[in-house]
Design a protein that fits this description.
Layout: E1 18-23, H1 34-41, H2 43-50, E2 53-57, H3 58-67, E3 76-79, H4 86-95, E4 105-109, H5 120-131, E5 136-137, H6 140-153, E6 172-177, H7 182-191, H8 193-196, E7 201-205, H9 206-220, E8 230-232, H10 239-248, E9 255-259, H11 269-281, E10 287-289, H12 292-310
Parallel strand pairs: 1-2, 1-4, 2-3, 4-5, 6-7, 6-9, 7-8, 9-10
Helix pairs in contact: 2-6, 4-5, 6-12, 7-9, 10-11
Length: 311
């Protein structure tokens, strides 16, 4: 695995994860908030199984204390409030080469109508996670699934309450890739074809959809693979918006693998952000993985967890 890849959890807990944690204000209020659902829903994983170091931005930690979340958990480091540079410091820790300081993942539960979600430090936080191959988890569903997958990989028993979301025969996935990442998407799809083939529904934008159907024809046969994915319009022509509607309606498409190229200017940036905002709007339902390194590990662990859901 490349040096900048996401570090896998280890069953011996010699190197526990270091996770940056922040939330938009609207996700901090009350026991039904996304923050409370995340930490209550994954409390056993955090306290007993992965035991990560949590680096928490100030207001989010204040909310944790007010709501009584993880009250006795010892592995918490406070970062400043956002207005005092807390998110900026998280960006720095994502790229830090020191294993005692670097972050292995970032959970930033974002409210798409909160202006702070578009501040430069918030955008840079996601971009550097993509560049350095580290999970950037901006929805409740994404954070819960990532913690569950990593815990099971570390030897924990699966949470049976989550089994329905791992019944892939009832689930859908969107596969999207920028131009420079299309070959990587094909490589990933070929390696994980057996898993992706289990999904009830697959969709993609533009050229990526055509390429994936050609791959499926090579593997499954010309007729069986012809419509393996449902191709929507290309991103610049509105394909991202078409998939966003499926997400918003909570139909067919819970998971998105979107291989971004963070090094190029994108004229249809608004369309890309629309898709991400759709996932964040239904934060308890949808998740989006944005880079190839994390996508590879996610699919591998997803296959393992889906098999357990069947047993």
């Amino acid at each position: 695995m490349p040096a900048n890849s996401s570090r896998p959890a280890r069953s011996d807990s010699v190197t526990p994860f270091r996770i940056g944690l922040a939330t938009s204000r609207s996700h901090q209020h009350g026991q039904e908030s996304a923050l409370a659902q995340l930490l209550n829903g994954s409390r056993k994983i955090i306290e007993q199984q992965l035991q990560p170091q949590l680096i928490v931005v100030g207001r989010t930690l204040d909310a944790m204390q007010q709501l009584g979340l993880l009250p006795d958990y010892p592995h918490i480091e406070r970062f400043p409030y956002g207005r005092h540079g807390g998110l900026m410091k998280l960006v720095s820790r994502v790229v830090d080469a020191d294993p005692a300081r670097t972050l292995d993942a970032v959970i930033y539960l974002m409210d798409p109508v909160d202006p702070s979600s578009t501040f430069p430090e918030a955008v840079a936080l996601k971009r550097q996670c993509v560049i350095h191959g580290k999970p950037f988890l901006s929805t409740l569903a994404g954070a819960l699934e990532w913690l569950e997958l990593e815990a099971v990989a570390a030897g924990a028993a699966p949470n049976p309450l989550l089994d329905p979301t791992f019944d892939l025969g009832q689930e859908g996935i969107a596969l999207i890739a920028h131009d420079a990442m299309k070959e990587r998407m094909l490589d990933i799809a070929e390696r994980h074809f057996a898993l992706l083939d289990q999904f009830a529904f697959r969709c993609a934008t533009g050229t990526t959809g055509s390429l994936l159907n050609k791959l499926a024809q090579k593997i499954k046969g010309e007729e069986a693979g012809r419509n393996w994915v449902k191709p929507f319009l290309s991103g610049p022509l509105g394909g991202d918006a078409q998939i966003a509607e499926l997400i918003l309606e909570r139909q067919q498409c819970r998971r998105v693998l979107f291989l971004e190229d963070p090094h190029v200017a994108r004229q249809h940036e608004a369309d890309i952000q629309l898709l991400e905002r759709a996932a964040r709007t239904v934060t308890d339902y949808a998740l989006c993985i944005s880079d190839a390194e994390c996508g590879e590990r996610w699919l591998s662990l997803l296959q393992q967890r889906a098999a357990l859901a069947k047993s």
